[in-house]
């Protein structure tokens, strides 16, 4: 038997109203992706998308989606993502777009990328804290440390935070 190789696309669902994200479910996202592939690539793209395509993970609170599909057809699926303008879920049409963040060979590599991406986003938000007190910034720094990967990365990350604190003072 030959192993079927897959690719995983890590996508972010962008909506204007964040509360509408809670209405999303994995079947609705899969249907929207299949429809976009059928519109852009016709019957050939639709046939490739039906074999081995699935939504592996959907977080409705953060808008993160993992899409799994065969390696040979990932470029077709990837090229159809910009044509998704809305997702119909639970009888409501949710205007949104899918932003591809990462393409990986395993879910684990996508998870590692997602942790790095979220850490970078937290670093960008840290200077924009409304309360200029040190307590709030310390809480955000602790949250960043708690979401980092276990192992050797934590010490390097703590050193980086100490350097940033010294620069702020």
TrEMBL record:
<dbReference type="GO" id="GO:0006364">
    <property type="term" value="P:rRNA processing"/>
</dbReference>
<dbReference type="GO" id="GO:0033204">
    <property type="term" value="F:ribonuclease P RNA binding"/>
</dbReference>
<keyword id="KW-0539">Nucleus</keyword>
<dbReference type="InterPro" id="IPR002759">
    <property type="entry name" value="Pop5/Rpp14/Rnp2-like"/>
</dbReference>
<keyword id="KW-0698">rRNA processing</keyword>
<dbReference type="GO" id="GO:0001682">
    <property type="term" value="P:tRNA 5'-leader removal"/>
</dbReference>
<comment type="function">
    <text>Component of ribonuclease P, a protein complex that generates mature tRNA molecules by cleaving their 5'-ends.</text>
</comment>
<keyword id="KW-0819">tRNA processing</keyword>
<dbReference type="Pfam" id="PF01900">
    <property type="entry name" value="RNase_P_Rpp14"/>
</dbReference>
<comment type="similarity">
    <text>Belongs to the eukaryotic/archaeal RNase P protein component 2 family.</text>
</comment>
<dbReference type="InterPro" id="IPR016819">
    <property type="entry name" value="RNase_P/MRP_POP5"/>
</dbReference>
<dbReference type="GO" id="GO:0030677">
    <property type="term" value="C:ribonuclease P complex"/>
</dbReference>
<protein>
    <recommendedName>
        <fullName>Ribonuclease P/MRP protein subunit POP5</fullName>
    </recommendedName>
</protein>
<dbReference type="InterPro" id="IPR038085">
    <property type="entry name" value="Rnp2-like_sf"/>
</dbReference>
<dbReference type="GO" id="GO:0005730">
    <property type="term" value="C:nucleolus"/>
</dbReference>
């Amino acid at each position: 038997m030959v192993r079927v190789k897959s690719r995983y696309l890590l996508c972010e669902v962008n909506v204007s109203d964040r509360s509408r994200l809670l209405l999303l479910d994995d079947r609705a996202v899969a249907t929207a992706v299949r429809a976009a592939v059928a519109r852009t690539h016709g019957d050939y793209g639709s046939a490739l998308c039906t074999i081995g395509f699935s939504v592996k993970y959907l977080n409705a609170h953060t808008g993160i989606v993992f899409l799994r599909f065969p390696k040979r057809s990932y470029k077709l699926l990837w090229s159809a993502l910009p044509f998704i303008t809305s997702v119909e879920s639970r009888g409501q049409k949710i205007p949104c777009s899918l932003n591809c963040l990462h393409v990986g060979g395993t879910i684990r590599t996508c998870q590692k990328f997602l942790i790095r991406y979220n850490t970078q986003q937290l670093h960008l938000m840290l200077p924009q804290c409304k309360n200029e007190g040190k307590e709030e910034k310390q809480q955000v720094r602790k949250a960043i440390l708690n979401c980092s990967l276990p192992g050797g990365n934590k010490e390097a990350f703590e050193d980086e935070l100490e350097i940033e604190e010294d620069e702020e003072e």
